[in-house]
Amino acid sequence: MSGYPRFPAFVTITTSYNFFFMAPLYKVVLLGDSSVGKTSLVYRLTLDKFDENLPNTIGAAFLSKEHSSNEKTVNLEIWDTAGQERYKLLTPMYYRNAKEALVCFDLSCPESSFDRARYWVDQLKVLGPSDIKVRVVGNKKDLVDENEIDLLRIRDFCSENNVSLYLTSAKLSEGVVELFDEIVGLVDQDFLDNYVEPTDSIQPISLLSGPRASTCC
Questions:
Q1: Residue 9 domain-assigned (yes or no)
Q2: How far is the C-alpha of 81 from the C-alpha of 91, rounded, in Å?
Q3: What is the distance between the alpha carbons of residues 210 and 55, in angstroms, rounded to a whole number?
């Protein structure tokens, strides 16, 4: 039994408050198939916890966390989107105003999982904001021997599409904080200096969570 409460698919978590300074909002959207570990990555960052039995997100979950790196501070507005096929048509509305997209795949079944991650990279080119930064995240590195994974095809794809590749383990807390440190540390100074809070926002879809399913098929 987990030591922290279950969250429904529609949830807002704020992990830090500062009533004298409101850091600029910096929207990050997580994309990828079900069960690649998107929610686990966010929970590791925001709660520093891991639960193998987290249910799949249905709709979208919204979480926020103030994060500092390289003498820069932003309020990360993280959107954890559903990976099920039937929700693909809904996902593009969560791209709006996003500054970063993390396209996640499962390192324990890289062939099938990464092939589906390529779909999201292609979709972002067509439907994403013109200035969005895309990063590809291979999660579950604790389940594999990196020396036995053929990452050449994945690295070539990332190079051809001008996106960065990161290998993480939400379970072992490897590479997760470092990923978000890099995101925040590389935020454009012009964005911070000229920040204007958005007047419009997208609300998550409130639906019940479904059972976890395997993506290796």
A1: no
A2: 7
A3: 6
Which residue in the block uniquely carries the two structure tokens 């324990």?
Answer: 108
Report in angstroms the alpha-carbon separations of 30 from 12, 137, 139, 149: 15, 10, 12, 23
Dihedral sign of CA atoms 154, 169, 17, 62 in order: positive
Write the pLDDT tens digit of every residue in 163-212.
999 999 999 999 999 999 999 999 999 999 999 887 665 554 433 344 44
Place of tokens 């439907």: 127
**DSSP labels, 171-186:** TTTBSHHHHHHHHHHT
CATH number assigned to the domain comprising residue 139:
3.40.50.300
The count of structural domains within the chain is: 1
Residue 216 inside a domain? The answer is no
- Has residue 89 been placed in a domain? yes
Domain containing residue 103: 25-189
pTM of the entire predicted model: 0.81
Strand partners, 80: 30, 61
Maximum pairwise Cα distance, the chain: 50
DSSP letter for 110, please. Answer: H
Task: Tell me the C-alpha distance between 17 and 151, whole Å.
Answer: 40
Domain assignment of residue 1, yes or no: no
Tokens found for residue 41: 């990555």
Contact between 113 and 105 under an 8 Å Cβ cutoff? The reply is yes
What secondary structure letter does DSSP report for 80?
Answer: E
φ, ψ of residue 151 in degrees (nearest 5): -90, 0
